Amino acid sequence: MRFTSQLIALGMACLLAIWLSLALGPVSLPMMDTLRAVLHLVGVPVAEDNLQQAELIVGQIRLPRTLLGLAVGAVLALSGVAMQGLFRNPLADPGLVGVSSGAALGAAVAIVAGASFGGLPEPFQPYLLSICAFAGGLGVTAIVYRLGRRDGRTSVSTMLLAGVAMTALAGSVIGLFTYLADDASLRTLTFWNLGTLNGASYDRLWPLLLVCVAVILWLPRRAKALNALLLGESEAHHLGIDVQRLKRELILCIALGVGAAVAAAGLIGFIGLIVPHLVRLLTGPDHRVVLPASALAGATLLLFADIFARLVMAPAELPIGIVTVFIGAPFFLFLLVRGRS
Amino acid sequence: MLIANDLCIMRGGKQVVANIDVALTPGQMLGVLGPNGAGKSTLMAALCGELAPTRGQVLLDDIPLNQWRGPERARRLAVLPQSSTLGFAFKVEEVVAMGRLPHGSGQQCDGEIIQHALVAADGLHLLGRSYLTLSGGERQRVHLARVLAQVWPGEEGQILLLDEPTSALDPLHQHTTLLAVRAFAARGGAVMVILHDLNLAARYCDHLLLLDQGRAHLSGTPEQVLTPEGLKSVFGLDVLVQAHPERGHPLVIAR
What we know:
Strand content of chain A: under 5%
Shape of chain B: globular
CATH topology of chain B: Rossmann fold
CATH class of chain A: Mainly Alpha
Number of domains of chain B: 1
Radius of gyration of chain B: 18 Å
Number of helices of chain A: 14
Structural class of chain B: alpha/beta
Largest sheet of chain B: 6 strands, mixed
Number of strands of chain B: 12
CATH architecture of chain A: Orthogonal Bundle
Largest sheet of chain A: 2 strands, antiparallel
Distance between the termini of chain B: 39 Å
Number of strands of chain A: 2
Strand content of chain B: 25-35%
CATH topology of chain A: ABC transporter involved in vitamin B12 uptake, BtuC
Helix content of chain A: over 70%
Structural class of chain A: mainly alpha
Shape of chain A: globular
Order of helices and strands of chain B: EEEHEEHEHHHEHEHEEHHEE
Order of helices and strands of chain A: HHHHHEEHHHHHHHHH
Largest interface: A-B, 21 and 31 residues
Number of domains of chain A: 1
Oligomer: heterodimer
CATH class of chain B: Alpha Beta
Radius of gyration of chain A: 20 Å
């Protein structure tokens, strides 16, 4: 397989990012202690001297945070690949069809007005924010998809324009909730909109992990069909692909993936745009390698961004969304300018 | 064999294809002529199952085309659209390899077929190049190689539909392209090709269908269809029709 070495290199980079993400922070741990703590946590017998503090920090704080970063990065990158394949445009971003803003709207409702519902059954209460964000993302995507559909066909350009309108609409409603919010929820809302991996816990992690595994298992099965779709919808049809079904599956994947990622970690921009781009520069556009490579590279990049976010102003912590957009937006402009020449 | 009976297609309340009968038979090449907007591409879209006809049906081996499973249909029927927009930096051989998608015939077999198809489309020297660096004509030939690879080498029961395959090509490659398609027909394949160049149609096609406002104005051999009267009434163009000095097929010259 000609892509094996590239995937192995990305896998190594990802392992390194995981290791650093577990070791570094306001209280940095020696690298070997970190490794021993992880091994001990998963049940491998190791020497236990002076391990309690490392094990506590790694197990309770850094491991869930690292897993969250891995899943969010991988899912956002894969959603980006799916989105760019769907729109047949390497500059498309999962934010485009309104998934992110729909999720943000759901979160704003939960944060500001959540207390006044008060109606969720007790076991679901901690998930209120996630459920609302996820439902918001899925709902807006469903509306956009519905608007883009005519005579049994999906018009991608109509979806794009509908996405712009829905994003603006969601923005104005979020503005309304921001206006109505009290000081405490205003602060939560602001930080959530900037994106953060802070406060990761295992019980908030598993819905995202479930979606992440589903997307990672499913998308590569459609890699060849995605390649054909890049030729054009008619061409893909002529090659025997059920194009309408493929598009529905891609939209579902994007809505699930971005909805779950935003629900778990807030708005983290540009990962879905930059990562597939960088990967294509490395491997070429064949989805059979772009998909696994993007999952690895997205996870790696997000972990490094998170390490940077927690070290740069330690012990205070920068919201990770600021870091990714600060890197991502100039990169996007660079791509635009380069593409023109 | 691909057969369409009494095909009618409405688009936006307007009848763009009306009462067309088409039969694509093994070894034969049908040329479709007509002015812009005559319904040529719409007819092709219906023949490949992309567009459902308002009336009439399209049969492949006596089974309605929309009842075929996608990959099985694609192994029998390949289509070259007028132009393809591919904005990703695939290598030439990767684009051609997409033609093998419905087959699952294995990497080695596919590799040989991709070579053969590129030779037939005169694109072997483009191997290794990025699609995005190619000229318009080179891209058109790569897509021709892709659809040839999809039905390679061509046998009875396989069908090729081509929409203006020579529109971006230099004179030499207009002929190499149609020769490659002719070779596919010689191996038993059936071909329908939309052309604007009347002399290319006269030289390479066995039958011609002259469309005018969605209707079949004339249909038959090149000699029967390419007449000064027919061309005048459909295209509004005054022409002389003479026999080709060496090959004998009709030669159309604008007056």
